[in-house]
Amino acid sequence: MKSLMVFQTDFTYKEGAVCAMYGVVKSVDRELEILDGTHEIPQYDTWSASYRLYQSMKFWPKDTVFVSVVDPGVGTPRKASVARTSDGYYVVTPDNGSLTHLKKLVGIDEIREIDESINRLKGKGTEDVAIFHGRDVFAYCGARLASGIISFEEVGPSYPVDEIIEHEIHKPEISMNRASGIIEIPDPNFGNSWTNIPLKEFKSAGFEYGDMIDVVIKNKDQIVFDKRILFHQSFGFAQKGQPMIYNNELMNIAFAVNQGSFLETYGIGYGSDWTVEFSKETAK
Amino acid sequence: MKSLMVFQTDFTYKEGAVCAMYGVVKSVDRELEILDGTHEIPQYDTWSASYRLYQSMKFWPKDTVFVSVVDPGVGTPRKASVARTSDGYYVVTPDNGSLTHLKKLVGIDEIREIDESINRLKGKGTEDVAIFHGRDVFAYCGARLASGIISFEEVGPSYPVDEIIEHEIHKPEISMNRASGIIEIPDPNFGNSWTNIPLKEFKSAGFEYGDMIDVVIKNKDQIVFDKRILFHQSFGFAQKGQPMIYNNELMNIAFAVNQGSFLETYGIGYGSDWTVEFSKETAK
Amino acid sequence: MKSLMVFQTDFTYKEGAVCAMYGVVKSVDRELEILDGTHEIPQYDTWSASYRLYQSMKFWPKDTVFVSVVDPGVGTPRKASVARTSDGYYVVTPDNGSLTHLKKLVGIDEIREIDESINRLKGKGTEDVAIFHGRDVFAYCGARLASGIISFEEVGPSYPVDEIIEHEIHKPEISMNRASGIIEIPDPNFGNSWTNIPLKEFKSAGFEYGDMIDVVIKNKDQIVFDKRILFHQSFGFAQKGQPMIYNNELMNIAFAVNQGSFLETYGIGYGSDWTVEFSKETAK
Predict the structure, then answer these.
(1) Potential cystine with A100: which of A28, A50, B209, C265 (Cβ 3.0-4.6 Å)?
(2) pTM to 2 decimals?
(3) Mean pLDDT of all residues in chain C?
(4) Chain A neighbours among B 5-24 (CB < 8 Å)?
């Protein structure tokens, strides 16, 4: 059975780029099945591209081919690559940080640079296009891989996994009554902020549902949020309009405002520069 | 042949929730076909969820499985259910008002509460997620039903159709030269407002294309719109910028502004609290 | 093998119209495969509808059926039609300018008016709907064609290709050190403006990467942009925030602001009224 293809980009559906990409896929092999991951990654945001891959990948069947095109460096010497993860998925992407979370949290077994002499669309008069590789390189090469026209080895030459471009991630640190990490990603629709601290580790530090916990969120050295707030299972335990700590759908620690937006109320961003510290006074 | 799956949520495509849900479906059964209803239901708006199901369902093949996840009460004791409509469709949804229009206007033959001991995703480390059931409960259970892995009876225990949570709907009332009902839903893209009064009943009250009709729209007791306007077949009959009455694509009475937005011009909302009255002076 | 169906509309996913259309397709033939072109064409903008068809069509397999519903004249005598392009695709669309680019730049071999006595949805109580043909006429007829239930000849009577409604397009004019054309379309997501001047012709006028070129953009007679700017292969060659000329993914000349929005910075529109002139001082 041919591999599924899941696409994510920062193109939106406002113009014809997604449609052209999907046409290329169907022209490679009519039987390929395409699903939208999202086309609303924030523009040029390779951190979000990286996180969104990580967030949903494990729920898909093995061998699914993810095509991720958030490519601020198109036209520069950044590599166009296909990675194979340790748990058996493929990612077709510019090597520009979009593989950060998969590499650190799942593992990448092998990565190959796309050989454009073979795996680039020809015959449509677009051979010299320098500013858009989603259609002619990433979709085309991904479709050939998903279809079985080429093997992973035929993508192009492999290069060391160590050379994959990565964003920095401040790993969670846990000690008794303390935990720290980063604001990893927003849930922009519901206005929540997700940290990279697993619930399990958080609880091992001694935090329990019902606790009031001191939270300090910083953007680099600047304190953006500094409050004692409730940790509980779901939003309804907090008063309306009040911030709280809960655990999200990936079983990580997260912030919400009950019936409001934590993101907007407190102006919280995300990424390596956004650190968070939790601490609890010990009953003495 | 396996049932089609149609999804509607208030998640948007801004983050990875839809992608994760669809991955779950494809992991249950690679052959299942997924179509987007919409992921832009207004947030937490179970009334709109209810209306959108009703609006499009009858155009689909019988046995189609609709998965509707607008779920402000996730984490509270609201039921996670699958309903079977009188005309042969399935709806997987929180029982929170999202079935209102189908129950009142189409009929629901049977409803069953999802048995999470069987029909909840396992093995991905998300067994304790309390704030998001779209992926682990609704998509998973819906996929099993659409695939034929479980029968409708195997969803879980049935409960009385009378217990289904419903929003109130003020039914249309018709008499000679008078009609009343509610503003049922907006067409946000084109700026129109749709009532729940069928054209056929409206005409039976004596209203005819070309008539000037008195319209009063209230939000609870407050009058929001009070004008005499034209009733006609399409927008072009009204002057540019003028409000008018027409019949919409479901053959119900609706309001538009020719080349403008009725919604924005007059600040019109929707739901049980938005009533509308039509009357016509009789020629004497 | 049945034809693929690609849809583009100005409906958005905010309400149930797309879902109802797709239901109609699947009710005609469960095996038909539907792909989103886009549902975010600017409202009533038949020029953009025309351009988006042209932009992506050639990347799809032959015989693909495109359904394009941007239909400001619904309810008026505009024709509902199916065109066959010279390169072997079908377009189901109101004949209202949406075929402009395909006719001028690709060629249309034949066009037929949809016979609604045969190719309109019946039995759903929507026979008299006058304000929305996407579902009952365009999707329904397109599905019958894609499925092979009807041949192209059975769509309805053909009429002269010359009668197809077209927008005016100012063709590119090229002479030594000069080129002129129109601002054909925006790339709204990345803030770029695309002209209708092919790179190949542009270069034949003597313009080369690295040149500083005088650009005048007019909206009708009013000058909106008048600057000497760089022409180069990709954005990085311009200084941050500076406007530049590059060639886009269709190998046409285009404008960008490096890490900014050309559209917003200079207030640039598109269409027949937006002309552009390039000229270069000759070294003497």
Answers:
(1) A50
(2) 0.95
(3) 95
(4) 10-24
